[in-house]
Design a protein that fits this description.
The chain has about 210 residues and is mainly alpha-helical. It has one domain. Strands 1-2 form a two-stranded antiparallel ribbon. Strands 3-4 form a two-stranded antiparallel ribbon. Helix 1 packs across helix 2, helix 2 packs antiparallel against helix 6 and helix 3 runs antiparallel to helix 4. The radius of gyration is 28 Å and the shape is elongated. The N terminus is likely disordered.
């Protein structure tokens, strides 16, 4: 269930600023810390700057979330390809009914189950490595003698209809964030310069 935490703004405009929307898998503390650091760096000085900054923070969180989604989709697809590759190593034949038969004899289904179990172990290692799941799957694939680049290429090719829309959303969010940041920098540049207090000539020493 999605939860929303208000951003750190003036109370009178808080309802107009995008909140911190939490989704399944989000780390509340991490996202709050990221949001607070971003707001501190943006250093808002007006109500309008706070509104723009709130949108920037929301976009940044969306970009990070979409990246994580894409990574997970790709990794899950890579597991499916890896399963196929490891199963192919068994060199199975198929009888007239289409049932798999091991050329070396033995329980073919036990051999397939063994491959599935190996994939399950690989998955546990990878998911436990969050957020470094991409690096970890490369490690476990290499340990199995599989080429991570080829596996990823096949995974993306087979699952393009699922992965591509998320990557397109990611690109669109990154473009929106960049444009909004450019607008925000222009706002900052247009801030009125601070005028120094006029010098108190009564206290000035004219050397007389």
């Amino acid at each position: 269930m999605t939860q929303t935490t208000p951003t750190r703004t003036r109370p009178e405009i808080d309802d107009m600023v995008p909140g911190l929307k939490l989704q399944a898998g989000d780390n509340h503390a991490t996202l709050e810390a990221l949001r607070d650091l971003l707001l501190e760096e943006l250093d808002t000085q007006t109500a309008y700057e706070e509104l723009v900054a709130g949108n920037l923070v929301a976009l940044e969180l969306d970009v990070n979330r979409l990246r994580r989604m894409v990574d997970r989709l790709v990794v899950e697809a890579m597991f499916a390809v890896a399963h196929d590759k490891l199963t192919a190593r068994l060199g199975l034949d198929y009888d007239s009914s289409g049932a798999p038969v091991s050329p070396e004899g033995g329980d073919v289904f036990a051999q397939i189950d063994a491959v599935t179990d190996r994939i399950a172990v690989m998955k546990r290692r990878v998911w436990q490595a969050e957020p470094d799941i991409v690096a970890m799957i490369e490690t476990v694939l290499l340990e199995e003698g599989l080429d991570p680049v080829l596996i990823q290429a096949l995974a993306r090719s087979r699952n393009a209809v699922i992965i591509d829309p998320y990557e397109m959303r990611l690109v669109a969010s990154e473009q929106r964030r960049r444009r909004l940041m450019e607008d925000y920098r222009r706002l900052q540049a247009a801030r009125p310069e601070e005028v120094e207090d006029e010098e108190d000539f009564d206290d000035y020493d004219f050397g007389v």
